[in-house]
Design a protein that fits this description.
- The chain is built from 21 helices and 2 strands.
- By secondary structure, the protein is mainly alpha-helical.
- Strands 1-2 form a two-stranded antiparallel sheet.
C-alpha cells in the first residue's frame, strides 16, 4: 500500500515536471544556460569593477543578463505556441495573467514585506536611515513606483523589466506571427529611438531627477527588445545553420568586434562627450550573447539523464527565486558594510603571500554566497510549490528568519559578538534540516506552527536585545524563548504519542 508520504512525493515530482515542460518541449540547453547565468549574476554582484575590469568580464561574465533576456523571449514564444492561442484575446487570457502573477508578482510582494522589515531592523527601525542608507541618492522615491524595493539590493533593476514584459509578450508574439522580419527589425528600431531620446533629451546627467529619468528608461522592457525579440525569433527556429538565422553570422562579428574594443581599448560611442548608447546590454552587445545561445542549443544535449542534469534543471527552475534571494542577501551586506562588493582587491602576478591570502578569501566569499543564495533560492521555489496557504505562510516565516539570521551571524561574528537568540535560531535551522533530510519526518502543520512560534519569538527577542535592551537585560529574552520552546516540545511529544 502506498504511503501518504510517497503519494505526496509523486505529486510534487509531477508538479515539477509540469513546470519544467511549460515550454511545450524540454530544452536542457536552456536549463544549463539559466543555471550558469545565475551563478554569473551572483558573481557580478560580489566582485567589484576594480577587479572585473582586468579579467575581461564583457566577454564571459557580463553575458548573463543578455542571455537571460534572450531566454525570456525564447521561453515565452515556445509557451504561447504550446497554448495554441491565435488571437490577442486568447493570448491575453486570465489564465495567462494568473500564471504570471503567481510566478512573479506574489514572490515579489513576499520579498517586499520581508525585506522591508529586515531592512528596518538593520537600521534600528529608522525608515529615514534605511532610505538614505540603501544606495541613496540613486535610489530615488520615484523608483518605488516601477518596482524598486525600499530596502534596495543589486539586481533589483531587473524586476520592473520583468513585470512589464508580462504586458507586452503576447502582443510581441502576435506581431511575430504576422510579420516576423519586420517585427524583429522594429525591436532594434525601438531601442534606437529610446537611445536617441535619452541622448537629445538628457545628454550628460547633471541632476538626480535626470538620473531617475534615465533609470526609468533603462528599466523599461522596451529598452531590451533586441534581446527579447531575438529570443522570440529563435522560438520559431533555433538551428544555427537555418537560412532564417543567417543574419546572425553578420551581426555576431560586429558585436564581437565592439565588445573587444569596449573591453580591451575602452572604446565608447560618444558625441561631444555624451554617450550615444547607454547601458551594458544595448543592441551592439546583445548579438554576441544571442549567438552563444544558438551555440548552446546546437552543441548541448537536449534531454540528458542523470542526477547532475536534474540538479541543473532544478537550479534553472529556481532562477527567479534565486535572484530575489540574492537581492535581499546583498541588500543586507550593503546595509552592514556600505558596499556589496566583498571582493575588491586586485592581485597581480607573480603572487605574494598577501595576494594568495586575498585570493583564498575571495574564493571563500564567492563560494559562500553561491551556496547560500542558490540553496535558499531553490528552497523558496519549493515553498511556492506548496498548495496549502497556511503551510506556505509558515514556511515563509521560517525561510526569511533563518536566511537573515545566517547573514547576521556572519556579520556579527566579525565583531566577536553574537546575541544568544541567534545561536538558538541557527540550532533550530540545523534541527529542521536533520528532521527533514536525515530523519525524514517533516512536521505536520500543527507542529510546524508550534515551532514557527518558537522561531518568531526568538527572532523578536533578538531584535529587542539588539535594539532596545541593555546588555545586562538579555536574560529577559530567555524567559520568553524558554516558554514557547517548552510549549513546542510538549506539543511535539504529545503529537508523537498520538500518532503511534
Amino acid at each position: 500500500m502506498t504511503s501518504k508520504k510517497q503519494v505526496s512525493e509523486v505529486v510534487l515530482e509531477e508538479a515539477e515536471k509540469e513546470t519544467l515542460v511549460e515550454l511545450g518541449e524540454h530544452y536542457f540547453q536552456v536549463d544549463f544556460l539559466k543555471a550558469a547565468m545565475i551563478f554569473l549574476v551572483i558573481f557580478d554582484h560580489i566582485v567589484s569593477w576594480s577587479v572585473k575590469s582586468y579579467i575581461a568580464v564583457t566577454l564571459w561574465e557580463r553575458i548573463s543578463i543578455p542571455v537571460f533576456l534572450v531566454i525570456l523571449g525564447f521561453n515565452m514564444g515556445c509557451s504561447i505556441q504550446k497554448s495554441e492561442a491565435k488571437t490577442l484575446r486568447e493570448m491575453y487570457s486570465w489564465s495567462y495573467f494568473k500564471s504570471k502573477i503567481l510566478r512573479y508578482i506574489v514572490p515579489f510582494l513576499v520579498l517586499y514585506a520581508a525585506s522591508t522589515f529586515i531592512g528596518l531592523f538593520m537600521y534600528g527601525f529608522d525608515i529615514t536611515a534605511m532610505w538614505n542608507g540603501q544606495y541613496y541618492p540613486d535610489h530615488g522615491f520615484i523608483l518605488l513606483f516601477i518596482g524598486f524595493l525600499p530596502f534596495w539590493g543589486p539586481g533589483n533593476w531587473f524586476l520592473p523589466l520583468l513585470f512589464q514584459s508580462i504586458l507586452i509578450f503576447p502582443l510581441l508574439y502576435w506581431a511575430f506571427t504576422k510579420k516576423p522580419v519586420i517585427t524583429l527589425i522594429l525591436c532594434f528600431v525601438v531601442e534606437i529611438a529610446l537611445q536617441l531620446t535619452l541622448f537629445f533629451l538628457i545628454g550628460n546627467i547633471t541632476s538626480y531627477e535626470e538620473s531617475y529619468i534615465v533609470t526609468i528608461f533603462m528599466t523599461s522592457v522596451l529598452f531590451y527588445l533586441p534581446a527579447i525579440g531575438l529570443g522570440m525569433w529563435f522560438s520559431f527556429g533555433y538551428k544555427l545553420n537555418d537560412n532564417r538565422n543567417f543574419f546572425m553570422w553578420i551581426i555576431y562579428p560586429i558585436s564581437l568586434a565592439f565588445i573587444t574594443a569596449h573591453q580591451f581599448f575602452s572604446y565608447r560611442i560618444r558625441i561631444d562627450g555624451v554617450p550615444l548608447l547607454r547601458g551594458d546590454y544595448h543592441l551592439l552587445i546583445v548579438p554576441y550573447s544571442a549567438f552563444l545561445f544558438l551555440l548552446a542549443m546546437k552543441f548541448l544535449p537536449q534531454n540528458p539523464d542523470g542526477r547532475l542534469s536534474r540538479g541543473i534543471s532544478l537550479i534553472s527552475r529556481s532562477t527567479y527565486h534565486i535572484l530575489l534571494t540574492q537581492i535581499l542577501g546583498y541588500g543586507m551586506i550593503y546595509a552592514f558594510w556600505g558596499d556589496h562588493y566583498a571582493i575588491n582587491t586586485l592581485v597581480t602576478f607573480p603572487f605574494s603571500q598577501n595576494d594568495i591570502a586575498e585570493i583564498l578569501n575571495a574564493v571563500v566569499n564567492l563560494v559562500a554566497v553561491w551556496i547560500i543564495f542558490i540553496s535558499f533560492g531553490i528552497l523558496w521555489y519549493k515553498i511556492d510549490q506548496n498548495k496549502n496557504i497556511l503551510r506556505r505562510a509558515l514556511y515563509y516565516i521560517n525561510f526569511f528568519i533563518v536566511f537573515s539570521s545566517i547573514l547576521l551571524f556572519s556579520f556579527w561574528m566579525q565583531e566577536f559578538w553574537v546575541p544568544i537568540p541567534l545561536f538558538i535560531i541557527l540550532a533550530y535551522a540545523i534541527g529542521a534540516l536533520i528532521t527533514r533530510y536525515i530523519i525524514k519526518r517533516p512536521f505536520n502543520t500543527r507542529l510546524l506552527g508550534f515551532w514557527s512560534l518558537v522561531l518568531v519569538t526568538t527572532f523578536t527577542m533578538m531584535i529587542l536585545q539588539v535594539v532596545i535592551f541593555q546588555t545586562h537585560e538579555y536574560l529577559i529574552t530567555m524567559f520568553s524563548i524558554g516558554g514557547t520552546l517548552t510549549i513546542a516540545i510538549i506539543g511535539t511529544i504529545l503529537d508523537s504519542i498520538q500518532n503511534r
